[in-house]
Amino acid sequence: MEYISIGKIVNTHGIKGELKVESWSDFDEERYEKGNTVYIYHDGQYLPFTAKACRFHKNHTLVTLEEIDSINTAEQYKNDLICIDADDREDLPEGEYYQSDLVGMTVRGEDGTVIGTVIDMEETSLSQNRLRIETEEGREVLVPFVPAFIKDVDFDEDMITIHVMEGLI
């Protein structure tokens, strides 16, 4: 089974075992819907838990899990990752991608020249994300993930084609 991290447990909340999660998901309400299985990566193992509820409080997601009913039990999971089975991911609309799927893809220019490999997708407070690419020469460059630069994302070929303008690379 392949797991995908959807957040990090940053603290507990209250005395009944609620977990304060720094969420990396756009689908928290679906992820933590009552009865869904999530996994906490703890001490090198993915431990299954059953979601009971979630709510939002001060830029964090507060998660209640069936198996955690006290602050004492919840404390042991501080700083652990919350994950889902990769097969449980939501389907995205055409033209939208999971950031983790882009990492490792080869990047080439419109002329076919290989530029490098995606090593990260950075979220910004602006309206655009950026690809962090390690070039063939070992440099790191940032390319805005917007249609003006991203011309094609081909998962069959594991290739992203970008428009290279002067000064970009």
Blueprint (SSEs and pairs):
Layout: E1 3-13, E2 18-23, H1 28-31, E3 37-42, E4 45-57, E5 60-65, H2 71-75, E6 81-85, H3 99-102, E7 106-109, E8 114-122, E9 130-135, E10 140-144, E11 150-154, E12 159-162
Parallel strand pairs: 7-12
Antiparallel strand pairs: 1-2, 1-6, 2-5, 3-4, 3-6, 4-5, 7-8, 8-9, 9-10, 11-12
Tell me what the structure shows.
The protein has 169 residues and is mainly beta. The chain folds into two domains: 3-88, Beta Barrel (Elongation Factor Tu (Ef-tu), domain 3); 99-162, Roll (SH3 type barrels). The protein has three helices and twelve strands, in the order E-E-H-E-E-E-H-E-H-E-E-E-E-E-E. The chain has helices at 28-31, 71-75, 99-102; strands spanning 3-13, 18-23, 37-42, 45-57, 60-65, 81-85, 106-109, 114-122, 130-135, 140-144, 150-154, 159-162. Strands 1-2-5-4-3-6 form a six-stranded antiparallel β-barrel. It starts with a strand and ends in a 7-residue tail after the last strand. The model has no long low-confidence stretch (mean pLDDT 90).
List keywords for this structure.
169 residues, mainly beta, Elongation Factor Tu (Ef-tu), domain 3, SH3 type barrels, 2 domains, 6-stranded antiparallel barrel, 6-stranded mixed beta sheet, 3 helices, elongated
CATH topology call of the largest domain? Elongation Factor Tu (Ef-tu), domain 3
Poorly predicted ranges (pLDDT <50, ≥5 residues)?
none
* Count of all domains: 2
Portion in strands: over 45%
Question: What would you say the CATH architecture of the largest domain is?
Answer: Beta Barrel
CATH homology superfamily of the largest domain: RimM
Main sheet characteristics: 6 strands, antiparallel, barrel
Briefly note the structural class of the backbone: mainly beta
SSE ordering: EEHEEEHEHEEEEEE
Helix content: under 10%
Radius of gyration: 19 Å
Query: What is the straight-line distance between the termini?
Result: 38 Å
Strand neighbour order, sheet with most strands: 1-2-5-4-3-6
Average of the residue pLDDT scores: 90
